[in-house]
Specification:
about 500 residues, alpha+beta, 2 domains, two-stranded antiparallel sheet, 22 helices, about 10% strand
Length: about 500
């Protein structure tokens, strides 16, 4: 007797609830920072940004910069977008019109990502947008939620929609491994990269401090195991059931280990969620509570029908595969430039950030530079501003902050790799501190000038390194540091 054909109704139910949770986390995380980042008294006010765009490109419009800021760039509008995102996330979780909710979530997040400029330009931001685009045809075409017997009434997802979600996971993981080899960084090629990674990554964790202490042979072995996961397991995504389960287990474990050693916002959670469609209903049933399964009901067998317009879906999927494959080949230096039609499509859809290339840590950072911003009343005695999450106080243990994404702390890591001139937001940050902006100060852990802003601010640069267990046992801090000099000279508003 032939084995029953796998179904993906319960899988889809889990995937969409997980995506709703990721969106809720993402919107709340932005909400608590939005005033300080892009509000009217923030580091990079969206109103000023759009005014600059109008000044230099008078014909710029919604298709060039898709954000609701064109209609209103007020603080209230930013808060309203975040609040709407949370509410629609709850609607998706409850099962209200999943496709409509996903479309709204995509539009709201795209609006904030565009308005957020450098602060919302991370790979997990565009990954969330692209995931949502592929989740729309994967979702059921229902409107009102059903509280019982949901799975018995829904039509199954089309094979094309299921393939597109898996294709995204395939590209994400394969590009992450391939780019490390393509960019010819010696540390990735000889397996020594992880000897630097745990302490030079943007926001390490306490577990990352311990991982750094592991012997060199283990670091090298871990690096080559990572290649096996990123370059090998993606090809199992399209294999039979047993191979997909192996890919699921390996990729999820990999993301958990990354999340233990470093803070990457909701990236690890979203990547784990993308692994869920590798499983069919038979596996999901084993992991979910029986009461929930009884409430959801079992799908009708045999299932009939599916998503209409499969020919249209197949045509679009073919275009997506061709486009993203060419982008991947350019990304890993196997093509010097994309074909003309691919470049034209990229220009047309680029502002919507919904078909992207990926690849974290293509070149390993081998030193850790930290910027300390200091204020002074007299230009002689200087007091440091304390950030919430990035390394500063040598005695403070690296902490977990994910799935929250502290975007200013992250950008400070990038700023330390370059100069203030290459980070257009850095000078405005110093100006806001001189003004005593409550919105910007709210992003920090401690304001050393609680009564009035300082007369002067400056930024100095340090080299940071993890200490060893023996140094810790002897009473040393988690970090040691060496002064490197001035990053930004002293300035004053008065």
């Amino acid at each position: 007797m032939p084995a029953a054909k796998p179904t993906y109704l319960l899988t889809r139910w889990v995937f969409l609830r997980g995506l709703a949770l990721v969106f809720a986390i993402a919107f709340v995380s932005i909400w608590v920072q939005v005033d300080g980042l892009i509000g009217s008294r923030g580091v990079r006010p969206i109103a000023e940004y759009l005014e600059d765009v109008r000044r230099f490109a008078s014909d710029a419009n919604l298709l060039d910069l898709p954000t609701l800021g064109w209609w209103s760039a007020s603080d209230a509008s930013l808060h309203l977008q975040c609040a709407a995102g949370v509410l629609v996330s709850l609607g998706l979780f409850a099962g209200f019109a999943p496709r409509a909710c996903l479309l709204l979530l995509w539009g709201l997040y795209l609006s904030l990502a565009t308005a957020g400029q450098e602060f919302l330009s991370f790979q997990w931001d565009v990954l969330l947008l692209e995931t949502t685009v592929f989740a729309i045809p994967f979702a059921p075409a229902s409107w009102l939620p059903r509280w019982t017997g949901v799975l018995a009434r829904e039509k199954p997802p089309s094979p094309v929609a299921l393939f597109l979600v898996r294709w995204l996971l395939f590209r994400l993981m394969l590009a992450s491994g391939w780019t490390k080899l393509a960019y010819d960084d010696a540390s990735w090629l000889d397996g020594t990269a992880l000897a630097f990674h745990y302490w030079t990554q943007p926001l390490p964790t306490w577990f990352g401090w311990w991982a750094h202490q592991l012997p060199e042979w283990f670091q090298r072995a871990s690096c080559f195991v990572m290649y096996g996961i990123e370059l090998g397991l993606p090809f199992l995504v399209f294999g039979p059931r047993i191979l997909r389960r192996i890919a699921f287990a390996g990729l999820v474990l990999f993301q958990i280990l990354i999340g233990l050693t470093g803070n990457y916002g909701f990236f690890n959670l979203l990547t784990i969620l993308l692994c869920v469609p590798l499983l069919d209903d038979a596996i999901c049933e084993r992991w979910l509570p029986r009461r929930l399964l009884a409430l959801l009901g079992r799908p009708q067998t045999p299932q009939k029908g599916g998503t209409p317009g499969r020919l249209v879906q197949a045509a679009l999927a073919t275009l997506v595969v061709l486009q993203s494959t060419c982008t991947l080949l350019v990304n890993v230096r196997r093509l010097e430039e994309p074909p003309a039609w691919v470049a034209a499509v990229d220009r047309a859809i680029g502002p919507f950030r919904s078909l992207n290339d990926y690849g974290l840590f293509r070149v390993m950072t081998k030193t850790r530079r930290e910027i300390e911003i200091q204020g002074s009343e007299d230009g002689v005695t200087w007091k440091p501003y304390a950030f919430r999450w990035k390394p500063g106080d040598l005695d403070r243990a690296p902490a977990w902050v994910q799935p929250h994404m502290p975007r200013l702390d992250w950008q400070m890591w990038f700023a330390a790799l370059g100069s203030p001139r290459g980070n257009r937001w850095f000078d405005p940050l110093l100006e806001r501190l001189l003004e005593g902006s409550p919105s910007v100060l709210g992003l920090l852990a401690r304001n050393p000038f609680p009564d009035r802003p300082p007369r002067f601010v400056r930024a100095v640069l340090f080299d940071y390194r993890f200490t060893s267990p023996s140094q810790r046992a002897a009473g040393a801090a988690y970090w040691s540091r060496t002064a490197l000099g001035t990053y930004a000279p002293a300035r004053s508003l008065r």
